[in-house]
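tmp note - DoxX family protein
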Amino acid sequence: MTTQDVSSPRSLLATVTARVAGFEPYLYALLRIIFAVVLFTHGLPKVLRTAHGSMADPMAASINLIQNVMGLPFAAQLAFLVMLLETAGALMLATGLGTRLVALLIAIQMVAISYALGPTWPWIDRGIEFPVLMGFLALYIVARGGGVYSLDARLGTRLR
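out:
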């Protein structure tokens, strides 16, 4: 490669792109783990029944949302499943175990949350930006699977 080749913007972009592409498997694993950590921070207060943000009791708030806003039966049981998904599911997602199934369930949960919160988009006052973003990220993980650095890959899971 000549000096002229390296200094051209196209050549420089190709070089940078090739080097960054090598980090992709690591960055995807990190993305999956950070996504799981964020989800876990919403599940753990439900398990511990401790305050989270403006909610004094997140589990009671989930039951209320499911029962009174969404009008669904078995609100306590559904809230328990949400808590389970946000804790055990988040741990599974972080390790890459059952990645596609867990991510699909999270995507469904985010659609339900977006519906329950209504079509509001303000960055403050409980808008739906967060669950919409989380939902689409979960869909990406469904399509992508666990990746190279996951228990799914290590175990040879066909659904990785």
